[in-house]
Amino acid sequence: SQTIHQWPATLVQPVGSPLSLECTVEGTSNPNLYWYRQAAGRGLQLLFYSVGIGQISSEVPQNLSASRPQDRQFILSSKKLLLSDSGFYLCAWSVGAGAVDGYTFGSGTRLTVV
Amino acid sequence: AQKITQTQPGMFVQEKEAVTLDCTYDTSDPSYGLFWYKQPSSGEMIFLIYQGSYDQQNATEGRYSLNFQKARKSANLVISASQLGDSAMYFCAMREGIVGNQFYFGTGTSLTVIP
């Protein structure tokens, strides 16, 4: 069966420090991978998605970047965190990109930038 | 225009009663999928139910059913026999087209089940 792992679960980082959040998927090949951010009490904002190794699409210009070094690995990074980067980060994957393809989400990372 | 609209920021329901969470959507694509997700306080997003635009019947999954009214572009989630564990945020979402990476989420409805 397919599973998705996301870590760490919580993170407190000072302003200006780097960030690396990792997401891995098991039990499937060539998944579509996504990074979302959810601000407190808000909906989900798509940050990045990837349809294959090395292929990254950015939805929102920001202080963050994403990479996909392996088929089932998706990494969210920042060189210097801002206070506004605080939020709940969710990784998700889907089999395809069609109307029938729902997401499976990771358990999320709660990032607090202080 | 908003692709997904959830007009109820917060809802309360008595335990064992049924509750309807509203969702309207906006698309001109004849092929789309509608999804509901539950987000408990732990943060994880849990898939609940799916309705395809070509599906003739309303989707059901256990105590969850989706009241799909295509002409009105609404996809309301009905939870029957509410339980305390149903207290959570609920998100309606839509995916359009045969191939498209956009997955639109509503702003969510916070449901509280009262004992």
Percent of residues in beta strands of chain B: over 45%
Give me the secondary-structure category of chain A: mainly beta
- Largest sheet entry of chain A: 7 strands, mixed
Query: How large a portion of the residues of chain A is in β-strands, by DSSP E?
Result: over 45%
Low-confidence runs of chain A? none
- Morphology of chain A: globular
How many individual helices of chain A?
Answer: 0
Class per helix and strand makeup of chain B: mainly beta
Taking all residues together, what is the mean pLDDT of chain A? Answer: 90
The portion of residues assigned to helices of chain B is under 10%
Gyration radius of chain A, in Å: 13 Å
* Distance between the amino and carboxyl termini of chain B: 38 Å
The most extensive interface between chains reads: A-B, 26 and 30 residues
Low-confidence parts of chain B: none
Strand element count of chain B: 12
Total of helices of chain B: 0
Oligomer: heterodimer
Largest sheet features of chain B: 6 strands, mixed
Summed over residues and divided by their number, the pLDDT of chain B gives a mean of 93
End-to-end CA span of chain A: 38 Å
- Computed Rg of chain B: 14 Å
Topology:
The complex is a heterodimer of chains A (114) and B (115).
Chain A (H helix, E strand, L loop, with lengths): L2 E5 L2 E4 L5 E8 L5 E7 L5 E9 L2 E4 L6 E6 L2 E6 L8 E8 L9 E2 L3 E5 L1
Parallel strand pairs in A: 2-11
Antiparallel strand pairs in A: 1-3, 3-8, 4-5, 4-9, 5-6, 7-8, 9-10, 9-11
Chain B lengths: L3 E2 L4 E5 L4 E3 L2 E2 L6 E8 L6 E7 L7 E2 L2 E6 L4 E6 L8 E9 L6 E3 L3 E6 L1
Parallel strand pairs in B: 2-12
Antiparallel strand pairs in B: 1-4, 3-9, 5-6, 5-10, 7-8, 8-9, 10-11, 10-12
Describe, in plain words, how this protein is organized in 3D.
The complex is a heterodimer of chains A (114) and B (115). Chain A is an all-beta fold and 114 residues long. Chain A has no helices and 11 strands. Chain A has strands at 3-7, 10-13, 19-26, 32-38, 44-52, 55-58, 65-70, 73-78, 87-94, 104-105, 109-113. The radius of gyration of chain A is 13 Å and the shape is globular. The mean pLDDT of chain A is 90. With 115 residues, chain B is an all-beta fold. Chain B has no helices and 12 strands. In chain B, strands 2, 5, 6, 10, 11 and 12 form a 6-stranded mixed β-sheet that branches. In chain B, strands 3-9-8-7 form a 4-stranded antiparallel β-sheet, with no helix packed on it. In chain B, strand 5 and strand 6 (46-52) form a beta hairpin. The model of chain B has no long low-confidence stretch (mean pLDDT 93). The A-B interface holds A 32, 34, 42-44, 46, 49, 51, 57, 88, 90, 92, 96-108, 110 and B 29, 31-33, 35, 37, 42-47, 50, 52-53, 91, 93, 95-103, 105-108.
